[in-house]
Structures are given as C-alpha cells and as structure tokens.
Amino acid sequence: MQDIKTSLVLVTTLLASLAHAHSWVEALSLLSPNGSFTGNTGYPRGMILRTTPGFNDTNMQWQLPANAGSQLLDNMPMCRPSQQTSNYTDSSLPKLEAYQGANIALRYQENGHVTTPWSKPGKPEHSGVVYVYGTSQPKEDDTLLGIHGQWTLDGKGGDGRGRLLTSQYFDDGQCYQINIGYISADRQAQFHRVAEAGSFQGANLWCQTDVPLPNDLDVGKDYTLYWVWDWSTMDGSGTVTLPELYTTCMDVTIADTKQVGDTGAVVPDGDSKSVPFVSITNYGEAAIQSVFESLSAAPTVPKVTATVPVNITASISYSVAAALLAKGVSSPAAAAQGASAVPLVLATLALSTHATAGAIPAAGAATAAATADSGAPAATSAASVPPTNPPRSADLGGGGECSVQTVTVTVTSTIPSQPQAHSTGSLARRRILALDDDDDDDDDDVFDS
C-alpha cells in the first residue's frame, strides 16, 4: 500500500470556476448537400496545432479586452497579430476551399464552457453567442468595434464592407469534451462519438458554427471570416458588466463547384435540395441538423438576457472527482467520492453571501461508500478545520473587490487497486464573498500570496 500526499484544489472562486481554457476556431469543413463534412479541412490564419511542441493557448487565443476587468476600446484589433493578414505559410494547414453559396462548419472545442457552465457566476445561458462576419475587403487594422454590432445581415451596416452571416449559440446542443461532469456524461450517451484513426478530435465531440456563404462571391478570390464569441459577464437583469469576447480570423478560397468537386468533395447537383440529411453513425462528422436545415431561411440573432444558475453542488462534486481522477483513481470511484464529499464540504464552508469573521464551524466526519473498478468498496472520510487565513480583501481590477477566506477540508480515501493505493488529500477552497468577475486564467495570480 502506498501513501500519496497531494493538494486537491476545489475552486478558486465562490462558485467554483472550472473552465480554465478558452476557445478558438481550430478547423473549417465544407458541408455536402446532405450535411456531412466533405473535402479537405481548412484552418484559420496562422494556425498552430495543439500538438505542436511547446504549444500554449495564447498561441491562438485572442481575448478582448485582454485584461479582465477592463472595457472594450474602439482601437482594439479584431484579429490577433498573427491573424491580421492572410497568414498561411504552412502548406499542411491551408485555407478552406469552397464554392459560392456553400455551407461550411467552423469547429472549436468547448473547453468546459458547455459541460461545466454553472462554474462561474454571471455567465450567459448557452455559453454565450457566436457571430460570424464576412468580407471580401478585409483590412489589416480592422477593429472589433468597427465590425461587431456594426455590420448587419443585409450588408448595409457600419462601413458597408461586409455583413453578418450568422449568429448562433456557442453551445450547439451536442458538443462536449470528455470529463467527469454530468453534462458531459449525458451527452456522451446521447451523441456518442467513436474516435477514428487520424482524427484530431479523438472521442471528444467538437462544437461548430454552421455558416452559409453568400451566393455572389467572386470565384478565384478569398473571402475573410471573423468569428466572434461573446462570453461577457452579466448582472441579474442581463446587462453586461464586464465584456469578455474571443475572436478567430480566417480566409476561404472561393472556387467554382467543379473545381471543388475535383478535390473529392461532394458538391451540389440539380437535385440537391431534395437530399435528406445524412444518417448519423458517428457524431462529429456532420453539421448540426437543426441548424443546417435552417441556413436557407432568413437568419436571426439570438438574444441572451439570462445567466446560468450556479450549481455549487455540481462544482464541488466535479472538483473533488477531477482531482482524484488526476491522481489515478478510477472514474467510477472518483465520481462516487466527489458526490459523497458534497454534504460535508457544504457544511464546512457554511456557504453564504455575507462575510462572517472568525472560524467557520467544523462539520462532523462523514463516511460514504464508493466502488472501484474491482467492485470492492472504498471508504471516504472527511473532517474540517478552521480557516487557515483570516478574511482579507483582494482587488479584482476595475473597481471590484471581494473578501476571501481559506478553509481546509481533509479527505482520506482508500482505493483498492493494483497495487493498492492509499491517497490523502487536502481540499482547499477560497471563499469569495462577493462576485468574482476576474478571468479564470488569472484567478491564482489574484489570490495567491
């Protein structure tokens, strides 16, 4: 039996911020008349794959404003520096080739924003809204506010150089990444995906924004797309209090239908309108049917006026389970222990929206059974201690401030395995007594001393 000592961090905000990475368009696919992906995959400008040695999210992520707590400014660039020109220097990561009036899919990973939406307060339902703008006249110095909210569906808004092609929820209703959360588990069962050889999605089901290209594009020229994801923080009335947007910029080469077909892509013929939607045998290889079938209709702009209710129980359960999973505990055992830890942690932290000086009352020990892969029971016990720090204030930027307490809960689990392992962890949770609107990636920088 081996003792493993580890620190399991529950959360870094009052309401368990679990989404640590953000999203960008990672691949473009042409859609055949029946909705399936067809032809060669295209990529954004300046694409760097996640599999590239030394890759970091900041290689592709473009957040506006860059600093959490700031407001949007008129001069903020629409595109990250590596995407401000048609930057396709790697022949293995080319532009998508499509024809006039084609439907295409812009694909991205959800990174927890869909499967743990309840983890950060004030975030919009459906994980926010994606807007896709198109232009045949891109400028290197295009700005977010010169286009977003200015270019319109009829092409007459703003400076008239482009138009809004579509806007859809970030959550396409199917996508997920495999994790120990209940939303992911439900979607894995409903929209099952089998990893195929050579697929960079693996068993994850990527999200997508399905986009109709205009019918009047010039053959032989590029058409530029700006993908804008609005994931701003809102108050209870639906008013944005802290903007948080992400963009990806990309080009599509417009060719005639025959030329695209010669690449092996399935293209329309005279009877294309009567083609039924493809029968799904493996999710992640076709458009979202409800979206695809509505692309020919007049587009509408979805409104988001409500925030996702915070689920503290799910946050605690997920955090405990994920931490145990990372230490080699089997998925069933980790999930069971995460669920069994919830009552004790809630009692220990005495969650409230009002600051209380002094120690938080300790809860009694609790024991619950969990089952490892071998079928043998695993015991979980927990006890609490007073706060390790006195309450203090932390500046969130933009005038925001919150009071912080740290409470330590000790959890001991015995997991039968080969060989047997005994793991002891310290679950630390920073208690935020006011709304934390700071960006996930900066939480540790704000509160660590």
Automatic annotation (TrEMBL):
Range of residues in the leader sequence: 1-21
InterPro entries (UniProt xref):
DUF7492
TM region positions:
none
The UniProt regions of compositional bias labelled Acidic residues, in chain numbering, are 435-449
Q: Where is the DUF7492 domain?
A: 20-260
Alphabetized UniProt keyword annotations:
Signal
Give the source's domain of life in one word: Eukaryota
Per the record, where are the segments of Polar residues compositional bias? Answer: 415-426
Segments of this protein annotated with the region Disordered: 378-401, 413-449
**Which named protein is this?**
DUF7492 domain-containing protein
What is the organism field in this record? Talaromyces pinophilus (Penicillium pinophilum)
